[in-house]
Amino acid sequence: MSAVDKYVQILADNRAGKGTGIYSVCSAQATVLEASMLQAKKDESILLIESTSNQVDQFGGYTGMKPADFVAYVHGIAAKVGYDKENILLGGDHLGPNAWQAENAEPAMAKALELIAAYVKAGYQKIHLDASMFCADDAGDRHQPLADEIVASRAAAMAKVAEETHAAFCAGQPKPVYIIGTEVPIPGGAQEEEETVTPTTPVDAIKTIEVTKAAFEAEGLSDAWNRVYGVVVQPGVEFGDDQVFHYDREAAKGLSDEIMKQDRFVYEAHSTDYQSETGLSKLVEDHYCILKVGPWLTFGYREALFALAMIEEEMLAPKGIETSKLREVIDEVMIAEPKYWKKYYPGDAVVQAYKRKYSFSDRSRYYWPNEKIQAAVAKLVSNLKETPISLSLLSQYMPNQYNAVSEGTIANEVEAIIINRTQDVIGIYARACKMAK
């Protein structure tokens, strides 16, 4: 059974009331991907990994990777950890004219169609069609959503290219499966303090499905429409710099009930980061069963490295041994190159300094590939390899990992501790989706 078939079965089981779901790892960070694969390997499950339209595109995106590069990168990590690449389902998130909103619709959509073709040709099989954003010459109130009919027409045009590309280059592989719709907030977390997050209305969710179905049929894409399995909605979960809006089952009940009236459909929930395990389980049970997680994964990785840097200071600085100064190095690099955080972190210098380190939106995730930061990480790892990590300090700063070492689950080794801390987050999702063994 292919990864696509297993994915479809998980969604069908969810609709049958089995409480199954699937989490989507939205990260290009190598340790996060390694930890995710080790979790999936332990669980004997498939693993859904997604890249976003601004992260990976035909020009390289902000990671410098084109779709084929990202596939090779992911498969390389799978080979390293001994995880079968055939169990990896690769997805493209928010694929559409997102990165080219400043251009007029015609050139922006031309690039979006190239983007879709590049993703499908590279072997991505789960495609989120999202043309919900205004292009420069689109008419309408920018404070209101772009007209459903325009969004649907553009989504259908992208699906047509996906189908044609698959037939030309990937005929021996399972056909693409699709997600439609978009969440109300910007991807990656809210930027401003909010009082509450209102779930999508059932009427709006069903209209998205109906209008998009009509657009697919107008393009002669009835077969492709039968492989649209999910719609992105806002179930009322979100996070900001230091706030989390937790799932309210009652507030989203009408939306949850409505999807069961639709053939085969489930919901995909974005920005599920930092929810409780109980909340995530309820989301899955209520048919928001594709759970996107991104910043929380690199936040957990960052927490691991910060904790280890503090252990390093406690252990080695009093002995006169040069330490990595990892936390200081990261902040210096972020201040010198503010483009990935400046507009997302409002406030005075003190507030911004705090957010650079500890914001839930975790803009520091964009900086890990930086050479200075990589050198500091290497120094940290080297130092903690040469001097065994104090168990009492591990208990102080990383109690979960202290317990894992005590139980014999992991060795008292720096790389194993980093992976294990990152897996703390992934394990929450695996259990909530009933994927954990």
UniProtKB/TrEMBL annotation:
The gene coding this protein: kbaZ
SUPFAM superfamilies listed in its UniProt record: Aldolase
Pathway: Carbohydrate metabolism
Annotated GO biological process: carbohydrate metabolic process; phosphoenolpyruvate-dependent sugar phosphotransferase system
Protein name listed in UniProt: D-tagatose-1,6-bisphosphate aldolase subunit KbaZ
InterPro entries reported for this sequence: Aldolase_TIM, GatZ/KbaZ-like, GatZ_KbaZ_carbometab
GO cellular component: plasma membrane
Recorded coiled-coil stretches: none
